[in-house]
Every structure is written in structure tokens, then in C-alpha cells.
Amino acid sequence: MKGLEFCEKYYLEFGKNMLETEFSDILDKLATGLLGSGSECFGFDDDISRDHDFEPSFCIFIPDESIIDRKTEFRLERAYAKLPKEFMGLKRSLISPVGAKRRGVIRISDFLMSKTGTPDGNLSHTEWLLSDENALLEVTNGKMFFDGFGEMTKIRQKLSYLPDDIRLKKLAGNLLIMAQSGQYNYSRCISHGETGAAQLACFEFVRAAVNVIFLLNKRYVPYYKWSFKALRSLEKLSNLAETLEFLISSDNDLFETKAEIIEDVSKMVIDELQAQNLTEAICLDLEKHAYSVNDRVSKPEIRNMHILAAIKS
Question: What does the alpha-carbon distance between residue 99 and residue 106 come to, in Å, rounded to a whole number?
Fold first, then answer.
């Protein structure tokens, strides 16, 4: 059984009744679910995942103090802490009654500050450009079990994916990185005898290519250790997963093969760009396609930013 299903069963068997009987007066102001950090929130958990942080638990999201005060928050914490410590053979770890945590009672504003840098999830253009996609994914992953107030549901819908101009800006920047690292620098590093730098160029190409594939699928890219697992489930270009893995797991003795693969991957990406009508360039040079995509950005203040404005070093 996956962790998300397991935790939902725990909530339905114990948490739901506790909230309905002990907190019926504020039930319409609460939200429960399992989301945020942890492989179980993404559906990526397996038997190995159970070696840490795998336990019967769930989140109780509460609004600001003007609606639910600290005293009531503490009562909720105490009630959550009294829930059965073991469920279906798994034990719940001890938690602090107050403070930052992944499960238990969590202020919505605190949760959003930790993930988006804002207390309400309202992001400016600049904040969207600099946002951590995995953090945004941690707001929108998992499952809500109950949302009496409806606030968490609205926030999750609002942050479900990037605004289109932000997506295009990120896409343009990553295409340029693919061009620079793969189509240009990889071969030059080999020619200079800089094999280490050549491998780094390969890694940069693959990292940017993974970002591009997620952007073309309109999906947030997760934390790097789950990126290939998630990539294999995408609708578009998921067949490139093994190819990209080969590029970063093989050495430079296969330079000619790897150089050919880089061009093949680039062509497949260009084909998808053209299929989605995101570029007007007619060539195999990813740099030209990067600038063509950037030209599609509708808001001048975003379009005129440096093409790498959305790329983190």
C-alpha cells in the first residue's frame, strides 16, 4: 500500500472522528490532507522509503490567528498527539506540540511561506520566475482529505502550474543552456582535453533537457532524486529518459556517440516545440529556438528581461 492511501486510511479511521467530535464548532475552518515533503506525497514511495519518515500521519491546516487562535491551535495539537501511535504495524514518531513540522497542525500561512515565500501564495512575476518548482509541487501534490473552509483548495488550484509567460521564459532559458552546454561546449571541452569539464557540460545539458521536457508537458519538475522517475510518466518525450541517463552515466570514451545523442535529443525537443507552435525558427540550433520562444512571451516586462532571468545557477 502506498503511503498516501495508508495515511488517508489512518485519517478516516481516527482523525476524522476526532475532529468531528472534539472540534465540530470549527470544523468548517479546517482542512486535512497529506501534502508537502516526502516521497509518499508524490506517490514515489516504495519499500526502501519506509526506512524513515514513513508513519501514520496527516496534516491539519488552519487559518490565521484572527480565525483560530493559539489556544485552539494548541488544543488541536494535543488532540492530534493523542491519536493512536500505531496503525497497521507502523508507529508514529513523537512530534513537538508546536513549531515547524511536516505533519500535524500547520498554519496555512506558515506552510506557504516555507514553500513560496509568501503567506498567501500570491506571487509577483519576479517571484514566479525565481520560484522553486519542487516547492510549488509540494503545495499542489498529495491529496486533500477534507477542506471545510475551501482556502487550501483555492490556493492549490491557483498554484497548480506556472503562468504561461513564466513557462515560456523558463523554457527559453533552459533551451539556451541546452544549446550552450550540449551543442557547443561539450565538443569544445573534449577538443581541449578537458574531460571533466566535458562531463559537467553533459550534466548541464541533461539537467536543462529534463527541465525543458517538464515545461513542454506543463508539469512541475520535482526534486532531482525523483526527476527521472517522474519524467518516465510524462505524456511527451518520456521516451528520452533512458537516453538522458546514458549521457550522464557513460564516460567520454564514447564521445562521438554522446555528441550524436545530444543532437538527436535536441532535434526531438525542437520537433515538440514546433508541434506546440512555440517557435518560428527553422533549424537545428537550439539557441535560435530559445530566442524564438522568448519572443512569444506576451508581457514586455518579462520578455525584455535577460533570457536567463528564470535560470538558477
Answer: 9
